[in-house]
Amino acid sequence: MLCLALFGACSALPTLVPDMARHDGPSSVQLEGADGPLSPARSKAILERIEAEGGAKDFFDLHLRVEEAVAGSPLVTGNHVELLQNGPKTYESMMEAIASARDHINVETYIFDDEEVGQRFAEVLIARQRAGVQVNLIRDSVGTIKTPDEFFTRLSDEGIKIVEFNPINPLTAKAGWEVNQRDHRKIMIIDGRVAFLGGINIASVYAGGSFSADFKVREGAVLPWRDTDLRVEGPVVAELQKLFIEAWTEQNGPPLAARHYFPPLQAKGKELVRAIGSSPEDPYSLIYVTLISALRSAQSEIWLTNGYFAPDPQLLDALKSAVARGVDVRLLLPGHTDSWLVFYAGRAYYGELLKAGVKLYQRRDALLHVKSAVIDGVWSTVGSTNLDWRSFLHNHEVNAVVLGNDFGERMRAAFLADLAQSRQVTLEQWRRRGIDERAKEVLGRLWEYWL
Known about the structure:
Blueprint: H1 2-8, E1 32-33, E2 36-37, H2 40-54, H3 57-70, E3 76-85, H4 87-100, E4 104-109, H5 116-130, E5 134-140, H6 149-157, E6 161-165, E7 182-183, E8 187-190, E9 194-198, E10 225-226, E11 228-233, H7 237-250, E12 271-278, H8 286-297, E13 301-306, H9 313-324, E14 328-334, H10 340-347, H11 350-356, E15 359-363, E16 367-368, E17 371-375, E18 379-383, H12 389-393, E19 395-403, H13 405-419, E20 422-425, H14 427-431, H15 435-447
Parallel strand pairs: 4-5, 5-6, 7-19, 10-16, 13-14, 14-15
Antiparallel strand pairs: 1-2, 3-11, 3-12, 4-8, 8-9, 9-11, 12-19, 13-17, 15-20, 17-18, 18-19
Helix pairs in contact: 1-15, 3-8, 10-15
């Protein structure tokens, strides 16, 4: 217990949010399109159209100023974004895109297992490699620790280029030995034109759905995993491609085969999207800074869904302060877990949040793995980032922020669908929990920095 206390004493997250200069208004925001930066007049016209369509001008203006002030990547117009819920639908869309590949496929993933789903992906990737499509794979060393080396040897023997991110074995590390820094991103890019990102790994736990009308879990059955991904087409795909190539280069991967990694991209839709990558090498997590800024700017609603919740003081304060100014703050969190330490680390804060007026819900009959948020119906994000110390300090992560009312409504609908299959946690119920639960919360909280 003394050792745990000493580790717990290290749990001091520095203030990550710098002083953020505010722009005078949305007219100062310069958008990017398929051919690069747009003129101020063109940027203003697009923003005014989106504001008029959304019917939430004040909220949109405010979030737009925050996005422009704190993020380091461009806000790109002309994108089509599809919301993919659960593994089966996501895998179907990925397989379709892989089958259409003609030039290259870039995959960055935390988990790539050797069970049914992983084997299916291996087969289709090998088939495209044999057809002359170059496949490049970044797989995290810890995330794929259970996958036999022979699985990846088979892929590399077929010509697929593979980088093992921060190998556990220091003798095989090519970019320094940083075993605590993990690649938690999930990105797939097809021909530089179509991209997928979110929380879904290549793993058989996602093989089942959890939204069908007759969905029921049999007694003793393994719970299906509930997760969310995005399928993106349009100019912002180039930003995700840059993140992949940067990670490959930083890990001293083998030279990438000459391919058209940055083809000319046409506008595919109307969505404003910012792709944000973060890594431990950054002065602070841009994803964290952007999220805290959006929470502090919220005026109506904050609806967060997250599979691993172990908040730092700044995040807690942002949520409680939002309730104090009249914002409807709802957290949709797991009712079941595959990581009990982080599960109970988060539950240690339930009482504090409930007293402040935050509404808490737990997803039933599924293992919640989603990492998403929708704020004021106009600011949405989906990605790989959990609301915990590890994601903000130790992991390489990626999120997409989508600004606009149309996509915001789709996110609200997804949140409400999950809410319908969840139970609310009340303060009265919470105060009645047992001593064993409280003991686990204390233990989880001591370890939260390292989880």
